[in-house]
Design brief:
By secondary structure, the chain is of the alpha/beta class. The protein is 52% helix and 14% strand. An eight-stranded mixed β-sheet has the order 4-3-5-2-6-7-1-8, with helices on both faces. Helix 2 runs antiparallel to helix 4 and helix 2 packs across helix 12. 31% of the residues are buried.
Length: 374
């Protein structure tokens, strides 16, 4: 037998591919028995939406967390863990906070879900701002029902999208008592945005970045102008903190959604590096805000480059912007996010039982209709 045939029949390689097939089937089936019943329960709860909106959105938030914990399971069960570094931010989980992420690949969102799902009451109260194309996916429908915002890119849609975002924040984010507002300032995946970002940087004498792309300031300015406080100690129920998160994949090689489904890459740790700012540190005037945001992304570039070059994440605390007001913030020095397996088991039992119940209800309805017709 030649070496090529031996390589194809390698038992370890065969196991990896068989396991990938089983996992892909499981993730696909997981979608089928979770998402439809999620909407069935929301349909039953519609009267409550009109009678007691606060109660409805509280229940919907809990169900939203249960559903997205299924996504967290996909990465967690593969050993694709999140390790948290930087400022300890979890005292902010019940406060209005704007969260900024660099955006590298399709695995970013599942890993964010895995990190946030481990915090009780946090995931219930998150609103996402994401690309409009996500609306047409299965989880996009769930996000639409949750009240997330889908922003449309391109020059022809920019102004109208920002107006719609402002209205959405005032009409949904504030009244529904959401706490964390998630934004990807780069406006797309790194591999898609980097060429145009570098051309823009060269044309305008700006830093040419390799590990992140230059962020866009439009959505951030709308958020600051419409639903952010001027001071951290302001008594209004508006955003008073900004959390800047740097996602760092080992070796600069991001996971992706097919890999999270199939699990064919070895287990690895993805670092989430947190930096917290009080809202008064973030300028609102557009030119100053743009410079402030660019500075944060230049800092991300340096952090990521050092990590990719050495394999060791920078240990020294990353310097904050001048005037940093949060003193003596506890640090997270490599804390791995851990989930309770019992929660995953109980939620699967809930969705499987719900699927059984709703299949029987729908079958009975169709049976009754046919009996009336014939």
């Amino acid at each position: 037998m030649d070496s090529t045939a031996h390589h194809r029949l390698n038992p370890k390689r065969l196991y990896v591919w068989l396991r990938a097939v089983v996992r892909i089937l499981f993730c696909s089936f997981n979608n089928l028995y979770c998402i439809p019943v999620h909407f069935c329960w929301l349909l039953i709860l519609q009267p409550l939406k009109w009678l007691s909106p606060t109660t409805y959105w509280r229940i919907e938030g809990v169900m939203f967390r249960w559903l997205l914990s299924m996504v967290a399971l996909w990465s967690y069960s593969n050993g694709y863990h999140v390790v948290e570094r930087g400022d300890d931010v979890w005292d902010l989980k019940d406060q209005r906070t704007l969260v900024l992420f660099n955006h590298q690949s399709t695995s970013d969102v599942p890993l964010i879900m895995a990190a946030f799902n481990s915090r009780i009451q946090l995931f219930n109260n998150i609103m996402w701002i994401m690309d409009h194309i996500f609306k047409y996916t299965n989880f996009g429908l769930v996000s639409w029902a949750h009240g997330d915002f889908f922003i449309q890119g391109g020059k022809e849609h920019r102004d109208s999208s920002l107006v719609k975002l402002e209205n959405h924040l005032r009409n949904f984010y504030i009244p529904r008592m959401r706490k964390w507002l998630v934004l990807f300032p780069e406006g797309g995946f790194l591999k898609n945005r980097k060429p145009s970002s570098q051309r823009y940087a060269l044309k305008n004498n700006l830093p040419v970045l390799e590990n992140v792309s230059l962020p866009r300031v439009g959505a951030l300015k709308v958020i600051l102008d419409s639903v952010a406080a001027d001071q951290n100690d302001e008594k209004t129920d508006t955003i008073k903190h900004l959390l800047d998160v740097t996602i760092a994949y080992p070796g600069g090689d991001p996971l992706d959604l097919p890999t999270i489904f199939g699990g064919w890459r070895p287990p690895c740790d993805t670092i989430f590096h947190y930096r917290r700012f009080n809202i008064e540190e973030v300028p609102k005037e557009e030119e100053a805000l743009t410079e402030w945001l660019y500075t944060r992304y230049v800092e991300k570039e340096k952090i990521l480059q050092e990590y990719y070059d050495t394999g060791v994440f920078p240990e020294a605390p990353t310097p904050h912007a001048p005037g940093y007001l949060v003193e003596k913030v506890p640090r997270l020095n490599g804390v791995q996010v851990v989930h309770d397996p019992l929660e995953f088991v109980l939620r699967h039992c809930f969705y499987l039982a719900s699927t059984y119940i709703w299949v029987n209800i729908i079958a009975w309805i169709f049976s009754w209709i046919f009996s009336q017709l014939w």
